[in-house]
Design brief:
single chain; 599 residues; alpha+beta; five-stranded mixed β-sheet; elongated
Length: 599
């Protein structure tokens, strides 16, 4: 129960406010109109199967409020929002007694639609002053209350809103659905609503805290996973140090014997190991244009994750990303556009280092630049276009609007494309210096057959296990927030896990590269990229497990969207992890060959 002095103080502050009603400033005067927006409806267990609210045959409210659509940002459109004025008459600070919205009589067709919706647990979403509200369309008879001999499905016809306010600001909204009516032909439905305004001492700044599931995201297992991953990092760093300080030291002792020691020379010539491929280890990798574009795109993705993560962590200063619809999507698009210069610089510089000034005329750097420009947009475009066709066929709210597609294309054409071109030119002239410590032989050395555990088909999948082990628990929390209506807010955790992933990927790839080179296989460039990138395969397999054992999703539409998004996530994750591993392996290889004597 609210204290009288609290209620009096709240109303005094409310009456003293002179701010005009505005959803951007979130301040209202007493009696000012407050918009209640209906967003979308759909099966509760299929989060991507959502439709426009009035796709359900609800009668339209008859209170004289126009059912106009709200102008949406690009991020809101891409997230599938579709806000329409509910038609409810709400005024700030003024209670509303139970008021009739509209009436309708169910016929056979509308009864079947509502019954099917209740059968699959349809829910709807509304927004009031940017605060989300959820409610169920109806419910099946559970053996309590009054039963109906003709149906076990009932529809809620009354909505009771309780709105808490502090001064001129709305702090909290609660919805209670009441008055169940049987869904069968001939039933007369009278839809109604009521509103109760309640003063509160809760602050406006903390109004979103009630939507955050602290018990879930800050569970003990979350902290344990971080500790477990940290211990894995220590172990792997120790393993790599062992290779560098002990194994390599022994190798150096063998390979750098005095030249006047004939017996030593004979031993080196007959020996096997990574030193024997010094004349081929820095040979151009096959499909150099594609490899350079993949490396450049990977560096771009790394920058996107770091920039977007940092932006989300600093939400306390500019507004939390989960409080604004579509803000996180918009952030990723902006980061992608601005980081395109990184992709061009990295791919152009990587490609150029394999060509001397005399060989420059034989290079295809223009093809590399075009591949870099198109690699990520085409990958995303193909998958999203397929999903958009499915959404169009089912007429869901997830279908991308033409306006949003035009905006994205314009950003790519006028921002991303020029930055990639400029980055490539700078990368070729500034970052494309080949500093290989060994010269490359004219004739490639044949690769001998080695032990089974040095075969690329064995090394590549084994390398991705440990990096996946360091992140799979965090993947559970991320998947759950995306597919189960939870607000993800622990971006500090995510960035820490990302840093751990980078360290683990580098360490495991270095070990894999050492095994490959010891087997005298000098194709370490692609092998290191694929080895570290194989983590994405385990992520996708985990998403398959999550779909069948952690969700109740069903239907063709939801399956296509789930595996389409998870496939896209895995492809980008493959490029990101592959680039991290290749960068670590490249530094390792240059370091060890810089310390040997070669002819």
């Amino acid at each position: 129960m609210t204290c009288p002095w609290t209620r009096a103080a709240a109303y005094t502050a409310l009456l003293a406010s002179v701010a005009w009603a505005n959803e951007d400033t979130h301040t209202y005067k007493v009696g000012e109109k407050v918009n209640l927006w209906v967003n979308k409806v759909g099966p509760y267990h299929n989060p991507q199967e959502t439709y426009e609210y009035f796709k359900l045959p609800y009668c339209k409210p008859e209170l004289g409020v126009a059912l106009k659509k709200k102008a949406l940002s690009m991020g809101e459109q891409l997230e599938g929002h579709d806000l329409t004025n509910s038609g409810y008459a709400l005024k700030f600070g003024q209670d509303v007694a139970p008021t009739k919205l509209c009436s309708q009589q169910l016929d056979r067709e509308t009864s079947l639609v509502f019954a099917a919706a209740v059968e699959v647990h349809y829910w709807y979403q509304m927004y009031l002053d940017d605060l989300p509200i959820w409610g169920m369309v109806g419910e099946k008879y559970q053996g309590e209350g009054k039963a109906d001999k003709d149906t076990d499905k009932f529809l809620f016809t009354h909505r009771r809103l309780s709105i808490a306010f502090n001064g001129p600001r709305i702090v909290e909204v609660n919805l209670t659905s009441e008055n169940l009516q049987p869904i069968k032909p001939g039933t007369q439905l009278d839809f109604s609503y009521s509103v109760k305004w309640v003063p509160t001492v809760k602050t406006f700044e903390g109004r979103f805290e009630r939507y955050l599931d602290y018990n879930f995201f800050e569970h003990q297992i979350h902290w344990f996973s971080i500790f477990n991953s940290f211990m894995m990092v220590i172990f792997l760093c120790g393993l790599v140090s062992l290779i560098l300080l002990r194994t390599l030291r022994n190798d150096y002792a063998r390979y750098t014997r005095d030249d006047d020691d004939l017996e030593g020379l004979d031993r080196v010539g007959e020996d096997s190991g990574w030193k024997q491929v010094h004349g081929d280890v820095f040979r151009r990798p096959s499909h150099l244009e594609l490899f350079s574009a993949a490396v450049g795109t990977g560096w771009q993705l790394i920058v996107i994750v770091l920039a977007a993560g940092l932006f989300a962590i600093l939400g306390e200063f500019h507004g939390e990303v989960y409080e604004e619809r579509g803000e996180l999507v918009t952030t990723f698009i902006v980061c992608y556009a601005l980081s395109s210069a990184v992709a061009g610089y990295a791919s152009g510089g990587f490609y150029k280092q394999f060509f001397s000034p005399l060989d420059e005329k034989n290079s295809n750097w223009q093809r590399t630049m075009i591949t870099t420009v198109l690699l990520l947009p085409c990958t995303v475009g193909v998958i999203v276009s397929c999903l958009n066709c499915v959404a169009w066929y089912y007429d869901t709210s997830n279908m991308m609007h033409l306006g949003a597609l035009i905006k994205i294309f314009a950003i790519w054409l006028f921002v991303s494309l020029p930055l990639v071109v400029g980055g490539t030119l700078v990368g070729r002239h500034v970052g494309g210096k080949g500093d290989f410590p060994c010269r490359t032989n004219t004739i490639p050395r044949p690769i001998p057959s080695g032990p089974w555990y040095t075969a690329p088909l064995v090394v590549i999948p084994l390398t991705g296990i440990l990096p996946f082990g360091s992140i799979f628990i965090e993947m559970y929390f991320i998947f759950t927030s995306f597919w189960n209506y939870k607000f993800y807010y622990v971006y500090g955790f995510m960035m820490l896990v990302f840093c751990i992933l980078m360290v683990v990927s580098v360490c495991t790839t270095i070990v894999a590269t050492y095994f490959i080179l010891n087997a005298e296989n000098y194709h370490w460039q692609w092998i290191s990229f694929l080895s570290s990138g194989s983590t994405a395969v385990y992520v996708f397999l985990y998403s398959v497990y999550y779909f069948f054992w952690k969700t109740k999703m069903s239907g063709f539409l939801q399956c296509v969207f789930y595996f389409g998004y998870m496939g896209l996530f895995s492809v980008t994750f493959f490029l990101l992890c592959g680039t991290i591993g290749q960068a670590g392996a490249s530094s390792f290889v240059k370091r060890i060959y810089r310390n040997i004597k070669s002819d």
